[in-house]
Amino acid sequence: MAVILLGKNQVIDKPIHIMFVTTQCDPPVMTCPKILIALEEGSNCTVIESHFGESQATYFSNSSTSLEINDSSKINYYRLLLQGDNSFHLGTVNVDLKANASIESTFFSKGSKLSRTELNVLMNGSYSECRINGLYHTVDAQHIDSVINIDHLVPNTKSNLIYKGILEGNSRASYSGKVFVAQGAQKTYALQSDKNLILSDKARVNTKPILEIFADDVECFHGATAGAISEDALFYLMSRGIDKKSATTILVEAFASETIDGITPDAIRQCLYGILLNSKSVLV
Hints:
This protein is mainly beta. 13% of the residues lie in helices and 53% in strands. It has three helices and 17 strands. Helix 1 (231-238) packs across helix 2.
């Protein structure tokens, strides 16, 4: 178990990287990593949680992360799921935001045979804010589930949720995102968007964005899309001498950039672009 505790007005300038690595194992194993992050009033830090594993190892990971973000504190939180092709992963992230607290977070998933990530955000303080970006890439027969719940429980809170998926082969994905606005939680702003790029006729995605509102003075939006690469965009690039695979890579990179470009540590941003664009898929 990893525990990070920041005192009042404490600021950590350099990112904190927590890594969970599963190596070759026989027989298969189960791991249950846990993280607790608690920020006192006015504190600030960047935390990277990453899960790695041997590409051919068979194992099951069941992780749990809790973030307690107190008044006027801020965290940049990145969760990277980069496990082996034969692995199974269940992950839960619980976030509790107090007054004037904020979280900016990016979730990146690639590699597991079957994975499910559940994110629960409680906006318990006025003027709290959360910005959640997600990106996953599935190939072959991989399956990934994303379940997100954001609860606006008090007035004057703001959430921005953008999730994106890139699907290839015979892979499957599902997205369920629910934004709840409690009675009396006036002046709530909530944006939820789920976009999926399907690169194979056999890939499938199920998406279900939900708004549940019990207040009348709010701004809430939600939507979902799924489709293939635009033939017009592909033709435009190929007409300028770019081969089809390179043109596809350019368009996929543009699709993913909205999520990845917002990552502050340059090393993490460059690493994710490298993993996404240099994997064994139609992108190479």
